[in-house]
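Note to self: keep these together.
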Amino acid sequence: MMVFRQKGFTLLELLIVVAIVGILAAIAWPAYQKSVNEGQRTDAKTTLTDLAAKQERFYTLGAPATYASDVKDLGNASSGTTMDSEQGIYTITLTNKLKSNGNPCSNKVGGVTVQSCFILTATPKAGGGQEDDPDCWSMSINEQGDKWSRAKGASSDNAAGTCW
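Structure:
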């Protein structure tokens, strides 16, 4: 009598392979997501440092010396205090307030309002992919070159250099 053996995989072998693939995916996905978040933060960094440099040029060319209070003065097409980042992942906000206490830093000089400070802040746009970045939800820079960031839902800033 001849014994016939079927060729192929058993159900148990297939279940083991599926379990191994699932474990590997569970380990790899968070690392992949973290890498994507870190890569997309460059959009905020690039836009913020570019605008900070434009603010310094605006300040040195002004008479009297003042920082811009409108993004249009920095070469942006739209006017106001907000604009999109270069890749459109973040919303950039311009405020003329002190980082230390949040007070406005405007003065009147000869009837002209002079801004002696600025803060540029990048926050993720809804649907841009970064709104779930847990570590660096917002990133900021001021007129002194100080850089800081804040985790999503945090009430205080991250340690210096966490996101920059």
